[in-house]
Amino acid sequence: MTDTSKTPDIHKDGDEIELLSFLVGGQDYSVDIMSVREIRGGAQATSLPHSPSYVRGVINLRGAVLPIMDLAKRLGMQEEQKNDRNVIIVVAVGERTVGLMVDAVSDILSISEEDMQPPPEMRADQNRNFVSALTIVNDRMIRVLDLNAVMPETNEEAA
C-alpha cells in the first residue's frame, strides 16, 4: 500500500514520462508521447481565408480535415526558409486534433518526473506560456510544450 496523501497531483518518485523531442527553429522542444497520434512527412496544406498567420491550412488525413499549425510561427519565432524536410506531428488533446509542423523529429526520451523543472516566471504580456517544463538531456535544454496553451482557442474546430 502506497501513501500518496503527501504528494497530491504529483506522481511518486521514480515515475518517468516519455517525450517525443523535435526541433523548431534550431531549438529543442518536446511533447508527451501519449498525445502523439502519428508522424508524417510534410504535406501540402490547403490554405483557408481569414485563418491565423500560424495556421498553414488543412490537409486530408484519411478522410478527416486536419488543421496544420506552423509551430515556429505559433511560438513567435523568426520564419526560416521553407524546406521539404518539414515534419507534421499529429497530436490530440481531448477531442481536438491538429498537425504541428516542425523542422525535424529528434528522439523519444524517458525522463524522470523529478528531472522536470518548471519554467521561470516571466511576464508574457498578451502571450501565454507555451512551455510547461524544462529538462536537460545530454547538455541540451529541452522545453516541454503545454499543448493546451499551444492549441488555438476556438470552438469552430469541431472534428
Order of helices and strands: EEEEEHEEEEEH
Oligomer category: single chain
State the distance separating the first and last CA atoms: 42 Å
Largest sheet: 5 strands, mixed
Count of structural domains: 1
Structure summary:
The chain is mainly beta and about 160 residues long.
Describe what this molecule looks like in 3D:
By secondary structure, the chain is mainly beta. The chain has a single domain (16-150), classed as CheA-289, Domain 4 (OB fold (Dihydrolipoamide Acetyltransferase, E2P), Beta Barrel). The protein is built from 2 helices and 10 strands, in the order βββββαβββββα. The chain has a 5-stranded mixed sheet. The protein has a 5-stranded mixed sheet with strand order 3-6-7-5-4. β1 and β2 (27-32) form a beta hairpin.
What descriptive keywords fit this protein?
mainly beta, OB fold (Dihydrolipoamide Acetyltransferase, E2P), five-stranded mixed beta sheet, 2 helices, disordered N terminus, disordered C terminus
SSE topology:
Elements: E1 16-24, E2 27-32, E3 36-41, E4 55-61, E5 64-70, H1 71-74, E6 87-93, E7 96-102, E8 104-112, E9 131-137, E10 140-145, H2 147-150
